[in-house]
Amino acid sequence: xxxxxxxxxxxxxxxxxxxxxxxxxxxxxxxxxxxxxxxxxxxxxxxxxxxxxxxxxxxxxxxxxxxxxxxxxxxxxxxxxxxxxxxxxxxxxxxxxxxxxxxxxxxxxxxxxxxxxxxxxxxxxxxxxxxxxxxxxxxxxxxxxxxxxxxxxxxxxxxxxxxxxxxxxxxxxxxxxxxxxxxxxxxxxxxxxxxxxxxxxxxxxxxxxxxxxxxxxxxxxxxxxxxxxxxxxxxxxxxxxxxxxxxxxxxxxxxxxxxxxxxxxxxxxxxxxxxxxxxxxxxxxxxxxxxxxxxxxxxxxxxxxxxxxxxxxxxxxxxxxxxxxxxxxxxxxxxxxxxxxxxxxxxxxxxxxxxxxxxxxxxxxxxxxxxxxxxxxxxxxxxxxxxxxxxxxxxxxxxxxxxxxxxxxxxxxxxxxxxxxxxxxxxxxxxxxxx
Length: 435
Ligand SMILES: Cc1ncc(COP(=O)(O)O)c(C=O)c1O
Description:
The chain is about 35% helix and about 15% strand. By secondary structure, the protein is of the alpha/beta class. Helix 3 packs antiparallel against helix 10 and helix 11 packs parallel to helix 13.
């Protein structure tokens, strides 16, 4: 029998996200995953309320995705994309462009969400550089954003909750305005856009692009905002000659109730990033979509030479990931995903509402398959996480937020279990607060 104590070894040698290697926090060993359940090594089963950081929209061990991976593996798992090409990349690009807003006509296949944000920023910078407008090299965004952990992406994450303090002096200094507070068009007032309007007018000469997560800001605070804000931003970008990058990495592929969240506002970005659910959570892949206008701009070298986009990761357009992504999109389109997401939305809105009355709860909000309970104070992760696990649910709160973004295939009983467990755990915690 294999005597390797892998968990002990792992604990001593393998880093986890946002974690200390010297004082590692508790992790749970997963033996396998099936449907909406994570099966732990010790045999316990957890209903997954996180969809593995929001990407496993079809759940786990999905026959169609397994088959796509197995079939592609027989042909080739990977070949370089420099000087070579393959059918999975072409088919995936065709499917993506068919789903995205019409103006999107070109695709860059990147290897993770953060890298796609780097590529999107680089595309915007090269767009202006190629036209001899070197001074247009900054970005404008709203607070509470999250766009990834690489350096370019960190520079546009929220300046307070992001890593600006840790890396001060090392990140590009971009421009930030307050995020809108109106959640729906019904609550909209023009004052919501005033600061943004003033900033873009004042800095138009140095702005390459605006970057935003459309409608839902994810890891920067799980905030939801009015589509009207996006419509105004689009109009102001056009007026002031600034490109608009929409980061749909968390929102894309149905999570907010529309295929892409920009559809809530009926607008089209100049550059769009997708990732996470792109492969149904099977493996890492992201894409940057853009318009013929941006492509012409990037290649419009001022000297008439024609410039190239300066990016090319080793695993660009990995065939295995492309084949699984294609199967994942086809599976999504063949499923009643809109009904599923709206049923999840309706149920979460109804069931999480009861949390509003608990001590310590500041807000409850739901959009699509996203349910959020915000506390007044940050939650004690080390204490609260085992409480969820003991009750058979996998959730990973952060900051003041307890939230769920389950796989779309979750049934109403399992979803109720997640809602009830959130309520029970918060009741226990708030009894402790009240006591
Ligand atoms: C909106 C958004 N952009 C970018 C990223 C970064 O993606 P990745 O973790 O694949 O690098 C994330 C990840 O949470 C995200 O939510």
